[in-house]
Amino acid sequence: MTDLTLTSTSPASLKVDALVVGVAKGANGVVLVPGAADVDKAFKGRLAATIESLGGTGKSGEVTKLPSWAVSATVIAAVGVGDEAVGGRRTPAVYDHEALRRAAGAAVRALAGTRRVGIALPADDATAAGAVAEGALLGAYAFRDYRVASKADHKEPVGRISLVSGAARDRAVKAAVSRAQELIPAVLLSRDWVNTPPSDLPPAALADAAVAAAKAAGVKAEVLDEKALKKAGYGGILGVGQGSSRPPRLVKLTYSGGRGRRHLALIGKGITFDSGGLSLKPAQAMEWMKSDMGGAAAVIAATTVIARLGLAVDVTCWAPLAENMPSGSAQRPSDVLRIYGGTTVEVLNTDAEGRLVLADAIARASEDRPDVMVDVATLTGAQLVALGSRTAAIMSNDDTLRDEIFAAAKRAGEAMWPMPLPAELRKSMDSEVADIANMGDRYGGMLVAGLFLQEFVGEGLRWAHLDIAGPAWNEAKPHGYTPKGGTGAAVRTLVQLAEDMAAG
Ligand code: BES
Ligand code: MN
Ligand code: ZN
Q1: What is the pTM of this model?
Q2: Superfamily per CATH, domain 188-503
Q3: Which ranges in 32-125 belong to alpha helices (H)?
Q4: Which sequence positions are flagged as catalytic?
Q5: Among 144, 175, 201, 489, whose CB has the most other CB atoms within 10 angstroms?
Q6: 292 lines ligand 1 (CB under 6 A)
Q7: Is the pLDDT of residue 88 over 90?
Q8: Cβ-count burial of 443 within 10 angstroms (0-12 exposed, 13-18 middle, 19+ buried)?
Q9: From the CB of 381, is ligand 1 less than 6 Å away?
Q10: Quick check: CB of 188 below 6 Å from ligand 1?
Q11: What is the pLDDT of residues 476-495, one digit of tens each?
């Protein structure tokens, strides 16, 4: 893990290999972003002009490197933050926290292979310092566990980061940076889990990894194996898992933030590989399906952060884990499953498996009557059609909760958008033989899936569903602090939501 320290040392005299400064697109060309004044002084006020002459424009995420004799660092990396923030006569220019997070991430990513990096971006208040710390740590990531002969071609992430702040001794600034140091390692761990080849991460292995992470954070962990699942009647998890030689699991994590606290239940879809089952996916559609446990990774990781931060909420985290495979023992289209609690489901398409394992977990989680229940799932291809690959969907049976999650996501710097649960779509899942079918109208497929889950939410409970099918995995080029592959989507939003619940 990358080491990050706050410092009040002038960036011009920081003993680092590379120094990051920010540039923006001003009305008349490139301008420096606050934080780099001392560096500019060493350049006789010509730093922005120098960067511009090298082709820098201030465009978001663009990195321009220049050798430097004027300051202690040997290289200066100027990262674009986008449009210049313009202050009023009495108000200083404030850069959007997500623009700073992305810039810090892009710079640190571009500096992979560098040992010590200094960052001189705006970090004089807690919001900015926290965002820059988060972006920098998120950018210091590479999944190299499986590289052997090609290891040297893929540089190691930045090892040490010095974050310059004019308020390095301020309590709120220090707290924001410490929070980032608890939060981001968990995001990176969830990326690792998503990136790990599914051969090496069957349900039992992911359960073991979850238990280890939980224990290290002081969280209680229990795992139900296939026998225990059968005994308790978890027909959804068992049905999906029965085609695989590697049996399913249900992970339960419990964190108590103190007596009388509000209770948050987190539930994450954990399909360690989704081949589609007998309703087999075409080869192309299967390529990213090791990411189908991204929801489980997110809720497990978030729970460990909530515990490490000692937040004043109670959390119960449920991760139903199964591998969806076709085989002689696999469930068939037209089989009927009995979900935990007794509701029967006709499986019309074995590729709509996420909702089956989640139904079990939502029904079980409901028994505890939590104040808020949130499930996170790479649930539908329709999510990508509706919102693209980067924006997650928020659906809920409670408009206020949906708004609260929307606000939490915005504050955390994660792209999410509210989506409806139109009641009229429910009848498209009426089954000829069972209580409900696992498929309905193709149009609005994401909403249909949400409505299916809603059936298993206990009477009167506040519940929300996050579809992160696209955001959990970056198939495109890296951008900002987001690498190719596993992204760690939703962890930051869930932690922010728990913080909001603890505060009010
Ligand atoms: N895991 C997939 C959804 C998915 C698709 C995630 C693309 C990430 C990228 C899910 O299990 C699935 O296969 N859903 C089906 C449901 C359909 C059969 C009703 C889908 O969306 O096509
Ligand atoms: Mn599927
Ligand atoms: Zn799936």
Answers
A1: 0.98
A2: Zn peptidases (3.40.630.10)
A3: 37-42, 47-53, 97-110
A4: 281, 355
A5: 489
A6: yes
A7: no
A8: exposed
A9: yes
A10: no
A11: 999 999 999 999 999 999 99
